[in-house]
Amino acid sequence: MAPKFRPVTLKQVAESARVSRAAASFALSGRPGVSEDTRNRVLKIAAELGYSPNQTAQNLRSSRTGIVAVYLPENVSALGYYMEATFGIIDAAELSGRTVTLVPHTNGAPHATRLNADGLIIIDPTLEDPHVDKLLGLGLPVVTGEEMPDPNHRVSGAVIADHASSTRAILDRFAAAGSRAPAIITTKERMSWSMSIERCYRDWCAERGLDARIEVSAMDLIVEDTRRATRKLLDDGTTDAILALTDGSVLTVAGYAAESGRRIGKDLFIAAAVDSPVLGYMNPSVTAVDLNPRDFGQRCMNMLERVLDSEQAEVQGPLTELVPTRVVFRDSTGA
Amino acid sequence: MAPKFRPVTLKQVAESARVSRAAASFALSGRPGVSEDTRNRVLKIAAELGYSPNQTAQNLRSSRTGIVAVYLPENVSALGYYMEATFGIIDAAELSGRTVTLVPHTNGAPHATRLNADGLIIIDPTLEDPHVDKLLGLGLPVVTGEEMPDPNHRVSGAVIADHASSTRAILDRFAAAGSRAPAIITTKERMSWSMSIERCYRDWCAERGLDARIEVSAMDLIVEDTRRATRKLLDDGTTDAILALTDGSVLTVAGYAAESGRRIGKDLFIAAAVDSPVLGYMNPSVTAVDLNPRDFGQRCMNMLERVLDSEQAEVQGPLTELVPTRVVFRDSTGA
DNA sequence: CGTCAATACTAAATCGATTAAGTGAGCTGC
DNA sequence: GCAGCTCACTTAATCGATTTAGTATTGACG
């Protein structure tokens, strides 16, 4: 067997530079206490030896884990949004040398007790999800992507996309294109973003004296449910526009609409509250909201870092950050 | 501020049980060296205090990180397969107390030097991906999901799905349904699985004296490319069956086919080499290969654990595990 | 009774970094 | 000429668990 590769330690750097480990540590961390000469010598030798500090030892010393846990809703593998947001979190974490791990949904027991992490990011917390309660009980700093649906659950901060603006923009566009009876298909699971879209839709309808036409679809049965919801909306013959919540479900809507003879962009307008590359290439292309999930994930991580870095500091109220959204208008909402 | 919560340490357990830290450690780890009485007392007290060992300290002592890194191909957020496989890895890792982290694609520099992990799982390594080389140069034990496309790259093990069987089964089904000129749309990126499907398709055609009709589509432009490829295949008027590689791209194939007046399942048969829930609910439903990605991910993790646990042991050849696949026949390949 | 061995423990070193406390040299100011 | 101070460093404690080496007690046996 090859001689086991042993990484260079601070001790070796210190010996090589003929200083104590403490001096070497001061030099490398940029803290005062060593002369410029010594600092430069240490830095040079560290670079030559290819020294890089042992994260585990640093973590032990500072009694942190260096790990940030991320919790995603269940049954969302089909939604590219979540993977993009996760990679956004990872990109931001990389810069600060933190490790990101995903919390499994299955094995309920282990989390009940302890999660080996310094902080937690929960993306799209769902009212119905029992795991969310447990995770909050762990006493970790928590930042959510979108708000906690139950305001009794206090968290350290939340990054929130501006769904209200994009929803209004889409509904206005529907109206401008000639729609008189727009409907929405929302998620059965109650999450902050879908609830806020629904609220915004109700308000918009109320302002215009229209009936709200709302159908729901469960995430784990999204194709089946959306198909059923679409049929219900279209078969009455009056609904002339549909805002579907996810990029996947709008495909189902489009499919059923085509089967039942509706011409999308002409006598039926559709849009999705979450964009994905496929929507731009459909025929006709489909209007959708670009949520910029990578950027969103990065912001969640950055906020959590702010929280972690100011742990000892004065207790400020929960942080909140509103992120703008952008509607990409395409053929499905009129030319 | 609330008194900072400090987890129970081994020292506290030991003091509470009136034994040394070493004795407590022996008792808890189940190693000989303490009497049954003492062991039970320590276990009881540990349970009462809610002791759970500090992972970071254990890792430092054993000079491991407790972290397994996972590398996914770029631009695959739209493919639920990868997220499912990742969760499979995580589920398996949870059982052995390991942490899973994803390797970011962006920041090239950091990985060049070091990756803070005990081992690495690379899912679908791509010949064109320069990161893969770098990652292999890190000297970590590596297990791949699907084979390394370049056999010069040696790894500790590989978990491989049996794409040959499923591909043959689909092609045979095309033929049984009446197809005389089946085609495939493969990935531009050269990965083991798509290459093996392509090879299998060529062999199958050769055996029957048919021309191979092969088009390619890049992952990052999959919708556009697949549409172009489909047009090319269908516009010559002879192609009567298409095997598309991904669940997403088969939708594009179906869309274009419908636009150009082909009736899927009647005068055009289609299938996908990767299944996803949406395919079962399409109209008509689409035949696809169930790769059971969660199970696949678990197997990757289990193999890596075997490798890590036998680090010191005799050098065996690289491990290989062939996982069966299952074709789910649906309406798109004939009634 | 003395020797040897086994049992059940304790003391201390270790993993690799950070950091509080301590030391000696050199300089200032009165 | 010396108290007092700063600077540049070293020593040693620390984080929490594991593990090696060492010690005291017991029992067996010739």
SSE succession of chain A: HHHHEHEHEHEEHEHEHEHEHEHEE
User: At CATH's second level, what is the architecture of the largest domain in chain A?
Assistant: 3-Layer(aba) Sandwich
Q: Largest interface, per-chain counts? A: A-B, 60 and 60 residues
Q: What is the percentage of strand-forming residues of chain A?
A: 15-25%
Q: Which spans of chain A of ≥5 residues are poorly predicted at pLDDT below 50? A: none
Radius of gyration of chain A, in angstroms, nearest whole number: 26 Å
Judged by helices, strands and strand pairing, the structural class of chain A is alpha/beta
On the 0 to 100 scale, the average pLDDT of chain A is 92
Relevant CATH superfamily of the largest domain in chain A: Response regulator
Oligomer: homodimer
Identify the overall geometry of chain A.
elongated
What's the CATH topology name of the largest domain in chain A? Rossmann fold
Distance between the termini of chain A: 68 Å
